[in-house]
Amino acid sequence: MSGRDSTPGSLTPTGGTGGVDCSQLRFNTYISSPKPTVLPQLNPGTILHVDVYKLGATETVAVFLNGTLAGGIVDQSARLFQCITSGFMFKATVVSKNGAQIAIRIEPA
Fold first, then answer.
1. pTM for the whole thing?
2. Overall domain count for the chain
């Protein structure tokens, strides 16, 4: 992990479409509204899949553990959404856990 982009919500500056090179998009954040049924399985080192989640007419970016919704992503969600819908794949690694507060590192898969 790079020292310059290790805070939640930070983004490695790059060029590219919309100011973001999807292959360089990396940042730390927290899972928003983690699902209680998945929470016990989320421990440091756990790898999650990042994808678009559709709920009714709304699409958002979320993280999944073995295909099960683990929670949402708020930070950089517009950029992630753009990259994912353009064909890029991302993963999230659990960095730390303090009760229901789950810190993750998002980066290309």
1. 0.80
2. 1
